[in-house]
Design goal:
It is built from 14 helices and 20 strands. The strands form 5 sheets. A 7-stranded mixed beta sheet has the order 10-12-11-17-16-9-13. It has a 4-stranded antiparallel beta sheet with strand order 7-8-2-19. It has a 4-stranded antiparallel beta sheet with strand order 3-4-6-5, covered by helices on one side. The chain is of the alpha+beta class. A hairpin with a 6-residue loop joins strand 11 and strand 12. The protein has helices spanning 3-24, 34-37, 49-52, 63-84, 104-114, 133-158, 183-191, 220-227, 292-304, 341-353, 370-423, 430-459, 464-496, 499-531; strands at residues 46-47, 54-61, 89-94, 97-102, 119-122, 126-130, 164-168, 172-178, 196-200, 215-216, 237-245, 252-260, 265-266, 270-277, 284-290, 310-314, 317-320, 332-335, 360-368, 427-428. It is elongated and about 110 Å long. Helix 4 crosses helix 6, helix 6 packs across helix 10 (341-353) and helix 12 (430-459) packs parallel to helix 14.
């Protein structure tokens, strides 16, 4: 081995060491000037939920509700279709089935012509149209996938570093949010269904004139019982409330609205939502912009309903009901209310990320305190230091100078591993620390294989230089084979494991690759340097 090649290997190790240090700077307790921070990595190794605290949530997606919502939307479409063809009809939704009565024969013909995928049960006075079982199954499965993507989008915009969001089973979603300082706000953000609807206020009905201007939360049920009777609630109308809070007393009360049940515009057309400040009272509101199709539809709605009130509804609550003064082009609107800045920001996030396809409910909510994380970190440090010291002492005593070289390689292995994790912004968990410790053991095991081979060659009478070369050559394939099989195992763990298991797999995979570098290139470079010294080495300390 030429000395020039040895120098290049040492230079490669030095570059790797410097890069590891640079990437680890954000994790080191150093005061770095602002001018340098601009060119340095912004974040290094992130700590997992078990190390820095946070929240662990298990949500259940109510897939049956998604199927029922699909049936409800289909019922509205059927009603419009039959009305358009002047077919007398009464449409009632019951779960995932729709009961239609009126002109049964004409209704049947319309259903067969336009909705061949519905299961029909035909009687003399009514028709029951039901969603097919395979359709319901697909809706439920799709609801979980949509909810998973929506939650992920909301969490990403909320700004949580390294969240873990995965599906479990048929209808469950696991959410891990490390480092969250305000768990309540995060839970509300994730769980908000965020169904945005625009409905017209029925100001033409004389019934709404009887409504009180506001009711307390305690009187809401009594109010609904009184005004949802057939003689008090016009056909095709519903009652929803606007939640208000008295600034002086903080008392919550609700303003009732009589609304047309038809949703004339939905939040599906939103392309942008952002927080703005009202110049009149310095209160935050959410400005929304509709896509091309939504803007066109909104312009038609406002043109056809000038001087009427348009209610903006989110998750069944009225936020505002402004009067349409003129045709509104451009597809912009605003949602105002008694928002705090955080509430306005969260509302804009859920509107941008989209609504959940079905309600979700919390099955498990565990808040992990940072004190537990500190205990875990300290326990991991103690275990790592103890393992490192024991290995260092054993290798130095048993293999002498060669053991010291292996110890130096192991130290480099740990530094390179941490540097690589920092470069990838990987998340370190408690199982990940176990992976680091296991990597230390594998680094030693690799050197033990090579050293024993070298000893065999020395016993056979070879010179130290020839013994080192032969030992590395003969141990090479054994070392590579063992590392490749371990790498395959870690890849399987990463693919099919959950968060903590993935943390273990990540550190183990990176550690294996780095171990091959430090063992086959790093220690070999040291031995080659020793063998190429001016005076010939007659005895190897091993």
């Amino acid at each position: 081995m030429k000395k020039k090649n040895v120098k290049w290997r040492f230079l490669l190790i030095l570059v790797a060491l410097m890069l590891s240090f640079v990437y680890l700077l954000p994790n080191l307790p150093l005061s770095i000037p602002e001018s340098f921070k601009k060119i340095l990595p912004e974040s290094g190794i992130n700590l997992g939920l078990d190390l820095q605290g946070g929240i662990y949530l298990i949500y259940e997606v109510e897939g049956q509700k998604a199927a029922e919502l699909t049936a409800s939307r289909l019922a509205n479409t059927l009603r419009k279709l039959l009305d358009k063809d002047s077919i007398k009809n009464t449409v009632t939704v019951k779960g995932t089935s729709i009961e239609l009565s009126g002109e049964v024969t004409k209704i049947k013909d319309a259903l067969v012509k336009n909705y061949a995928n519905l299961d029909l049960a035909i009687e003399e006075e009514k028709i029951t149209a039901s969603l097919q079982e395979r359709e319901i199954k697909w809706i439920k499965d799709n609801a979980v996938e949509q909810a998973l993507e929506t939650i992920r989008n909301r969490v990403d915009q909320f700004g949580v570093a390294e969240p873990m969001i995965t599906r479990r089973g048929e209808n469950e979603i696991i959410v891990q949010l490390p480092g969250v300082k305000d768990p309540k706000r995060a839970i509300e953000l994730i769980g908000k269904t965020a169904v945005l609807e625009f409905k017209l206020v029925d100001d033409e009905s004389t019934v709404s004139a009887e409504y009180p201007n506001a009711v307390t939360a305690a009187d809401e049920k009594q109010f609904l019982e009184k005004y949802t009777k057939e003689d008090k609630l016009p056909k095709g109308d519903i009652i929803l409330f606007e939640r208000r809070t008295a600034r002086e007393t903080g008392e919550v009360f609700k303003k009732p609205y009589l609304l047309k049940s038809e949703t004339i515009l939905s939040g599906d057309f939103i392309s942008e939502a952002r927080v703005a400040i009202d110049s009149r009272d310095n209160q935050p509101y959410v400005s929304i912009k509709l896509d091309t199709e939504g803007a066109k539809l909104f312009e038609e709605i406002t043109a056809n309903n000038v001087k009427k009130r348009l209610a903006i509804i989110l998750d069944g609550n009225v936020y505002s009901a402004p009067v349409i003064q003129e045709r509104i082009a451009g597809g912009t609107a605003q949602i105002s209310g008694t928002f705090t800045m955080d509430e306005a920001k969260d509302l804009s996030i859920v509107l941008r990320a989209g609504s959940l396809p079905a309600p979700i409910k919390i099955e498990q909510n565990v808040t992990v305190g940072p004190s537990l994380g500190r205990d875990s970190i300290e326990a991991g440090k103690r275990a790592g230091i103890a393992a490192f010291l024991l290995v260092v002492v054993f290798m130095a005593l048993y293999y002498k100078l060669s053991g010291v070289i292996a110890d130096a390689a192991m130290l480099l292995n740990i530094l390179f591993l941490l540097g690589a994790m920092a470069a990838l912004n990987a998340t370190l968990t408690m199982p990940g620390i176990a992976g680091v410790i296991l990597t230390m053991g594998m680094a030693v095991d690799t050197n033990v294989l090579m050293f024993e081979r070298i000893r065999e060659e020395l016993r056979s009478g070879k010179t130290p230089r020839a013994a080192v070369d032969a030992g590395y050559d003969k141990a090479f394939f054994t070392i590579v084979d063992s590392h490749v099989t371990t790498l395959i195992t870690s890849a399987v763990l990463f693919q099919f494991g959950t968060g903590p298991i993935k943390g273990f797999a990540v550190t183990l995979s990176i550690g294996i690759a780095i171990n091959l570098f430090t063992s086959l290139i790093g220690t070999k470079a040291v031995f080659d340097y020793m063998m190429n010294a001016k005076r010939e080495v007659k005895k190897l300390s091993i």
